[in-house]
Structure formats: structure tokens, C-alpha cells
Amino acid sequence: MLSMFLGEYEHTIDAKGRMAVPARFRAQIDKGAVVSKGMGTCLSIYTAEHWERRSNELVAGLSSDDLRDFERRIYPSASEIDLDAQGRMVIPAKLRAYANLGSEVTIAGVRDHIEIWNRATWQEYQERLDAEGSNIPF
């Protein structure tokens, strides 16, 4: 059974592109993880195991043209994650540019993966969700 990623954390990215991974997420990704373009203007981090499983699910349902486009969009931009002794990961410059990540970011646990957002973009997104109503089933 996979552990869920939960919670929201405000962190920073330094000039070398390093970001501390929240302590409660480190144990889940220390056996390998992948960072890639996410849905919207964010980055997604999946454990290596879940990345492979999710990839297989996605490609199974795509036509050859859609599959080619998907593969060309996701895989070249993806990068394996290694944590340093301080629990930091390096976010590649191209991925930082894609998600418009400056120094202030929000790291969100989103059930089966982690998302990294520009902090202001995340706040605007959350405000929009809150304004749209409360159809939350919990």
C-alpha cells in the first residue's frame, strides 16, 4: 500500500536550484522519485514505483498520436531525484522555468504525488477553488 502525500508547506529554492523536501515526504521518496511537468503550471513528483505504474496506465489508454505527443511532452522533461545529506533536491532549470518557480514555492501533498507551485500562483488557485463553492465530499 502506498502512503499518501498530505499537507501544504512553504519553502524556498536557492540560487543553485536546490529545495528542501519537507521532512515528512523524504522517507517516501528516498528510494527514488521523478520530477516532471505537472498538470497546470506546477511540477509533479512521483515515487519511482508510482511513476512507472502511472506511466503504464496513461499510455495504455492513448492512441498512437496522443501517445507520441504525451511521451514527447513528459519524458524528456522528467528528471530522477536524488536527495542530498540535508534532504534537498535540485530542480532542473527548465522545469523551474516551466512552472515559473522563483525563490518562494509551495509544496503540496496531493494524495499520490507531490506538487511544487510558485507560491503566488498556488495562493490564487486556492482562492479560486474556495470561491467556486464547497462541493467537498468530506
Query: Which oligomeric form is depicted?
Result: single chain
The percent range for strand residues is 25-35%
Q: Unreliable stretches, pLDDT < 50, 5 or more residues?
A: none
Mean of residue pLDDT? 91
Protein name: Transcriptional regulator MraZ
Subunit structure: Forms oligomers.
Subcellular location: Cytoplasm, Nucleoid
Family: Belongs to the MraZ family.
In short:
The protein has 138 residues and is of the alpha+beta class. It contains five helices and eight strands.
Structural commentary:
The radius of gyration is 15 Å and the shape is globular. By secondary structure, the chain is an alpha+beta fold. The chain has helices at 23-29, 48-60, 64-74, 93-98, 119-131; strands at 8-12, 18-20, 33-37, 43-47, 79-81, 88-90, 104-110, 113-118. It is built from five helices and eight strands. The mean pLDDT is 91. The strands form two sheets. It has a six-stranded antiparallel sheet with strand order 1-7-8-4-3-5. Strands 2-6 form a two-stranded antiparallel ribbon. 36% of the residues lie in helices and 27% in strands.
